[in-house]
Amino acid sequence: MIYSAKDLDENITAFGRFIKMGSGGEGENPEAPSYLTYRGAMMDALLATFPDETNLEGKEKARRYKLAVEIESAKDRLTLEIETISLIKTLVGKLYSSLVVGPVWDFLEKTKDLPQETVNSNAVEKTTQKNPKPSPEGLDAAKLRN
Asked: 135 — phi, psi (to 5°)?
């Protein structure tokens, strides 16, 4: 699957609102709200430690770290194998509530049949057509975690 890096940085919306992570802590206004992106949700899930994985081998931890670095460093396009998408979906499902899982899974599945040259233009249009304009108030992601 091929994903546009621009799409990875879109704020996740649920029910027409951005999912708020708290204050930004960076830039000109450190008190400004920070919103969860698809890139951020996938990286958080790959880097998280789960209670049912206390004996996870170092090799798998390193693999997940490398995937998170790959997602973080994607500047133009990101290509993910089906097995990697499945892993990310599983981990996002463990880390977040349905309010985040639904949009992230939809995002990961939306480019399955798109030709490579249409990923940048069509994927963004599909997302904006389905959702109403997101509310800047946002939803607090800290309250969304299981």
From this structure: -80, 135
| 121 burial via Cβ count (<10 Å: 0-12, 13-18, 19+) | exposed
The tokens for 98 are 């349905």
Q: pTM of this prediction?
A: 0.69
Cα separation, 115 vs 125, in Å, equals: 15
- Distance between CA 48 and CA 109 in Å, rounded? 22
Amino acid found at 68: A
**Two tokens, residue 120:** 């940048």
The domain spans of the chain are 2-9+38-137
Contacts of 115 (CB under 8 A, 6+ apart): none
Q: Which residue has the higher pLDDT, 136 or 109?
A: 109
